[in-house]
Amino acid sequence: MAQKAWAERLPVVKSKADLVYDSLHEAIANGDLLPGERLNMDELARNFGVSKIPIREAVKRLEADGLVVSRVHSGVSVAEVDVTEMRGVFLARAAIEGLVAQLAAERVTDPQLEQLDAVQAEMRAELAAGRVAALPELNSRFHRVLAEAAGYRILGELTEQLLLTIRRFRVTAPVDSQNWRAVVEEHDAIVAALRDRDPQDAERAAKHHVEAQATHEVGEGE
């Protein structure tokens, strides 16, 4: 136990490949690198001030994450996200978010409720000011706190993966202000159920939230 505590206090030192990976991951998530955009390995090496080796290592990790694709004679490009695939993402998210909210209603702490309230207040302020650019990250923050309250690391990882895919899709199909208002209202229903410590209501509210967004963004499907 003493050795573990000591190790946890050590500073985290990131390799060059880690730093490149983190930067490219963030750029893809934020839409600075668009779906289908080609990555020039020589240019990346120059921009990051590193050799091609950490660039290749970072790209391999991004490819394993499904964020980039590598094709013979075409090089490496940011992976596309199509509507058909997104329907599957929303189906998976409805199931996971429902479970997350159900568990969170049983375990959420007062500080976590305060965090959710704070995110909601920020989202309302950004909407009132007509600034929608900050809303995707605030939305992700809301769902991260929710997943943390559920108490299982794997649910947090799955939530993060699904949120990233949805954010990437929204780069090419942005959410409008009217729908962001609906998102905030749907979040309110989830928070109310958490505050009441009602797992069934929390699950219903979370599933309704995801299903409403799926209908708006990708339609009903075939």
Can you offer a commentary on this structure?
By secondary structure, the protein is mainly alpha-helical. Helix content is 73%, strand content 5%. The chain is built from 10 helices and 3 strands; from the N terminus they run H-H-E-H-H-E-E-H-H-H-H-H-H. Strands 1-3-2 form a 3-stranded antiparallel sheet. Strand 2 and strand 3 form a beta hairpin. Helix 3 packs across helix 4, helix 5 packs across helix 7 and helix 7 packs antiparallel against helix 8. The longest helix has 25 residues. 28% of the residues are buried. The model has no long low-confidence stretch (mean pLDDT 89).
Give the strand line-up of the largest sheet: 1-3-2
- Gap between N and C termini, in Å? 55 Å
- Which of globular, elongated, flat, extended, rod-shaped describes the shape? elongated
Please count the beta strands (DSSP E, at least 2 residues each).
3
Give the arrangement of secondary structure elements.
Blueprint: H1 2-9, H2 16-30, E1 38-39, H3 41-48, H4 52-64, E2 68-71, E3 75-78, H5 83-107, H6 110-128, H7 135-150, H8 153-172, H9 177-195, H10 199-218
Antiparallel strand pairs: 1-3, 2-3
Helix pairs in contact: 2-4, 3-4, 5-7, 5-8, 5-9, 5-10, 6-7, 6-9, 7-8, 9-10
